[in-house]
Structures are given as C-alpha cells and as structure tokens.
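Input/output pair, single chain:
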Amino acid sequence: MASPESSLVLFEMFEAHARAAPQRTLVRAQGAGLTMNAAALLERARDTAAELKREGVAEGDVVMLAGLSGCQLTVAQLAVWARGASLIAAEAQLSGPEVLDLRRAFSPRAVLGPGQGIAPRIVSDAGPTAGGAITADGVAVIKLTSGSTGRPRGIATTAAQLLADARHIAEGMGITRDDVCIAAIPLSHSYGMANILMQLVSQGSPILFVPSPLPDLLAEALSIEEPAVFAGVPYMFEMMGREGSPTIRRRGLRTCLSAAAPLRPATAAAFRERVGLPIRSFYGTSETGGITYDSSPDGEMSIASDGCVGTPLPGVRVTLEGDEGRVVVSSSAVSSGYVGAPAEADGAPREGGEFTGTAFRTGDTGRFDEHGRLQLTGRISALVNVSGRKVNPREVERSLASLPGICDAAVLGVSDGVRGESLVAFVSAGPGLTRERIIGHLRDGLAPYKIPRRVVFLSEFPRGPRGKLDHETLRRLASEFGAREKPEETDDAQ
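Output:
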C-alpha cells in the first residue's frame, strides 16, 4: 500500500474498484462509439505508466498533460499517479507557445500528449524540459492559475486534499457509486477533476464524456436512463434552456449543478421550465476545492436570489472577514500553497487570494442571509476606485440585470486620467433598448458615481473554455470603444 503522502494512493484506490468489478463500464463517450470497462481502463493506465517509467519518471517528478481531453486525459491522469508522480493538466485548447511557456515555468520531467485511439503518448518535441525544477514530493496535482503579471502559477495539491474534496462533494450532493457523472467540462480544471474524475477514483462512479458540448450531443447525454449528475457551467444551461434547443428527455438525470461563473436567475428559470429540474449553484475555487452548494429541497436558490450559492459543504467552514466580508475557507481540502512562478509584487495572486495555514482567504466578498446561505457580493480585486470612492461592479451588474431586455451584463473599471478609474458597462440587449434608457434605469437606483461612463453593446460576450468571462478581451474592447466614442457624462463628482 502506498504512503498516504504519495499520489500512488489515488491509483491504488482506482485499481481496487477496477479489480472488484472488472467488467463494469466506467468510461464512455457520447456519440463517439467508445466504451471502456474497468479492466480495459486499468490496463491502458498501466501501459502508459510503463512508458513514463521508461522515460525515467519516478515518484515526486512532475508530468505535464498537454492537448488531452476526455478518455485520453483520464488514462494519462491515472498513469501519472501510478508512478507516484505529480501532474499538471494544461487546457486542451492551449496553443503551442502557451504550452511551451508552461513547460518553461514548471520544467516537467515528461509531457504526455495525444496519441492513437485513447492512449496518450510521450511528447519529445514540444520544447525544453529541465526536470526537477519544482519539488513535488507529496503533491498529486499542480493546478494552474495566473498571477497578476499573467505568468502561470501552480497550486500544490496533495492526494489527501483531493480525496477530502471529493468526499465533501459526494456527501453534500449525494453522489454515489451508481451515479454517472456527465462530463462536458474539462477534467484538467479543478471543477471537473473534483466532481468527475475524483468520483471515479474515490468510489468508482462512471463517466460519460460529451466530446464537444454541442446542443444535440449534450441533450442526448442528459437523457440517459441511468442515475446521472451533470456538472455544467452557465453557458451550457443557457444553451439548453433556449426555445428551440434539443429536447432533453428527463429519465435518469437527477442533479444539475452550475459553477465557474455567475448563473443568471433567468437562465436557471428557463432551464427549469424546459427540463423540469433545478440548477443547483455550486461555489468553489482551485485553491480550496468545493465550498458551498444549494442543497435545499427545491433547489430554487439560483432563481430566487441572484448570487446565492448555498450553504457550506460537509467538512467545510466559511467565515467572513473584515468590513468588506472577504470569504475565508477552512477545510482539509484546502491546497498546500502556490508553486512555479516568482512571488508577485503585492505578494498575492491575481484573484486576491492568500493561503494562511489550513485556510484560504479568497478574493470574493459575501454575506450570509438569515438561513445561513452564502450570498456572493463581489470581488476584492474587482473594486473600482472612482474619484476616491470604492465601487463594486457586481452591484452595478445586478442593477443592469433587473432591467427588462438585458440578456447579459458585465461591468469593469478602466483607467481614467481625471477620476483614477471609471466604469464601463457591457450589455447584450434586446431590440429597442438604448443607452439612454439603460443610464436612466441605473440613475433610478444607484449613486451618481456608480453610473458607468460608457455603455458598450455586444451581440455575444467573450468567454473562455469554462464559460468564464474573458475580462482581458473586454478591457481591450473598452479601450477601443473609448478611442472613438464620447463617454456618457455622469454627475459622479458630487
């Protein structure tokens, strides 16, 4: 039996499930004709682990997974743990130069990339590796995030922390060995790893991959007869809740949860109307794992209260710090700390978080309602200084969302030579909704200094692979817009 400090314990746990029921189907891909039982998945993982051994990968080494998704990614993750090594899973969509940047930052001993069929292969021509640059003893996963300079940073996470997170999630959401975990989100991200891959490892829950989250494929996956849990992101629910989207025949699907980006009440209501099942809000971070979940009997928090993300998962303690209500998380799932890139000038990562022992001070702000449910109110790092006054863009976004005809909205701060910073609002709106009407609506409920000086209309919001807003693209659009448009004059000097 492996040491509890080694990632090998994760492979041995999966191996025990596979040996107990070798013919049980554990992995399949919707619409791809691919099905693997436990014995076959175990064999593939062992074969890849043998390749890593020939490459010289030993316990404590770092292996990068690049360009992998679905079944290949699962095989690669299990194989790395079979060597007692630590994995870094890059997003499958990253470009060659981006992967090379990660290799330079983390110096993995080996890189696994796409191969034939479902077998990943050792990549030998993707750029330099130094090996041994990062001490990864006892680390099972180095999760990826970004610092304030944009350079990649890693979050060192042990096998014990991964298992604690999987246990909190399974207990809080009622996920069992018999539940099929529908995977339309990447397993390279903390959300997919905890809610899907680690459920396979820790209790043998099968995975149904949706190779590409297209409406037809996703509708077919959500219509399976077996008991199923779907971990999605808001844009997927928006897509499936639209009029004219493919019909979901609700049979085995019993739980839908949404994370990684704010879920609009209108999206939750539309999906509930079409499918007959609530979307339960889930809140977590890469540094802490799962934090809160809507475990209410009716699962209606996401419709009734914008920003409400439920109550703490079992084993998780949430406190609010300071006047701003910074969310602080304590649990056995909190990761060990940051690795990989030099400390930044302010000593904190881009999102404003900070490790303090077994706790993590997130960059989020919130409050508890009378039922003990956490209501997210904004970001520490997102506060905008307008003429000396701090403005939370989330407050302005909520006001925008309350205006009929607004489909989506985002507010951010940009540099302003007069005020220090000023606000720009991005909106996706129905026909007939003008800038004047939007500004008039905001003036009815917000202080003058909280009114955006520019309103930019977008037909579609730029988003990343996990459905999160691409704020860098929005900032660029704000600069381009500002160069050719006269800003909306507001009385923010009062």
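The longest strand covers residues 406-416. Confidence is low (pLDDT under 50) at residues 126-133, 342-351, 483-494.
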